[in-house]
UniProtKB/TrEMBL annotation:
GO molecular function, a single term: transferase activity
Similarity comment: family membership: Belongs to the glycosyltransferase 2 family.
Short name of any one Pfam family annotated for the protein: Glycos_transf_2
Protein name: Glycosyl transferase family 2
SUPFAM superfamilies: Nucleotide-diphospho-sugar transferases
TM helices/strands, residue ranges: none
Species assigned in the record: Kitasatospora cineracea
Domain of life: Bacteria
CDD domains documented for this protein: DPM_DPG-synthase_like (cd04179)
All residue ranges annotated as the Glycosyltransferase 2-like domain in the record: 9-164
């Protein structure tokens, strides 16, 4: 519980037995009032056992579905257990839980808060086609969400209660669905998106995919995902879940 709100940190994890102990310890030390849920995304190592040993509830998928599938299960858990806020934190140690209070403060004026890597804090950089793709996505998604966004593919994000319900009913599991398409879908249904600057740390486990070929493929696939997100029809009942706010045709009803 933080400021009277029940906060759940969702950690999608695929073969993260080495990184999870440190991440869970840091969350417990930095944010003693929050709960955690590790979603084991079909791991073949001891991810589930390690998470349980360190005191976290675990939801285990039988097959590897990717981050989108893991987060969809995490949002359904958060909705069914009545959480006010759900925060996605990677299990590789890149996301610093010390930024969570800043994200919670920003949620007072938004439904979805992105922890942005390229907004003035830290020295995280990308180059080549991957940078081009991220820049293009930031320009397009800034127009869609009507706010300046600099890091639309960040997996460090916080959702309020209304958006938890929205994502519990609709959350794309395809490639980049957990970042680009989920944000576009939420914005098209009237949810407010904002970002806060964060410093990204080096991952403690795993290897980043940064070869020029992979980056070029990423550029093409990101454009395709964005196109599909823009043309996909959103169910009408989902639009009714967005809180109404003054000045935008909607009035804030709280979290």
């Amino acid at each position: 519980m933080i400021d009277g709100k029940r906060v759940l940190i969702i950690l999608p994890a695929w073969n993260e037995q080495d990184g999870l102990p440190g991440v869970l310890k840091e969350i417990r030390t930095t944010l003693p009032g929050v709960d955690t849920l590790v979603v084991d995304d079909g791991s073949t190592d001891r991810t589930s056992a390690v998470a349980a040993e360190f005191g976290s509830p675990v939801a285990q998928l039988p097959y590897n579905l990717g981050v989108g599938g893991a987060m969809r299960l995490g949002y359904r858990y958060a909705f069914l257990h009545g959480y006010d806020v759900a925060i996605q934190v990677d299990s590789d140690g890149q996301h610093d839980p010390a930024y969570v209070p800043v994200m919670l403060e920003k949620l007072k004026e938004a439904d979805l808060v992105i922890g942005a890597r390229f907004a003035g804090q830290g020295d995280y950089t990308v180059r080549g086609p991957r940078k081009w793709a991220m820049s293009l996505l930031s320009v397009v998604l800034s127009r869609i969400t009507r706010t300046k966004l600099t890091d639309t593919t960040s997996g460090f994000r916080a959702s309020n209660k209304q958006l938890i319900e929205f994502f519990a009913q609709w959350y794309p599991v395809e490639y980049l669905g957990d970042t680009i398409e989920s944000m576009v879908g939420a914005a098209r249904c009237g949810f407010v998106v904002r970002q806060v600057p964060v410093a990204m740390r080096e991952r403690t486990t795993g290897t980043p995919s940064a070869s020029p070929i992979k980056a070029t493929v990423y550029l093409g696939r990101a454009g395709l995902v964005l196109l599909l997100a823009m043309i996909r029809r959103m169910p009408k009942h989902l639009k009714a879940l967005a809180p109404r706010r003054a000045g935008s045709g909607r009035v804030l009803t709280g979290q």
